[in-house]
Write a structure and sequence with these properties.
It is built from two helices and eight strands; from the N terminus they run βαββββαβββ. By secondary structure, the chain is an alpha/beta fold. Pfam families: Glyoxalase_6.
Length: about 120
Amino acid sequence: MTTILGAVVLGTPDPPALADFYRALLGWEEVDREPEWVRLRAPEQERPGLSFQLEADHTPPVWPQLPGTQQMQAHLDIQVDDLETETRRARALGATLEELQPQKNVRVLRDPHGHPFCLFLPGA
């Protein structure tokens, strides 16, 4: 049996808008677009992709986590060559920088719909 990770899927109240953010951030191409589902993939690579599905009642997780609050189930780690430049670019695209930054060579941000993601330098 062969298994392949097809995609990571993020729930969001607006799949097209969040897909547009990550398409610009990652430089990936759009494969499918519907009002309730959008799929991106890296150029020249079929899988894995990054997909966005409609979750009208999406509640962003709390960071750092606190007991009794919406917990982060997963996040994206995105390797970059220049942490400060890419952090500025992500913010210009609509990301917000978290106050708590637990590591020197990592930046914790949130996408426009509240999903945490990290930019990191090689070796971090």
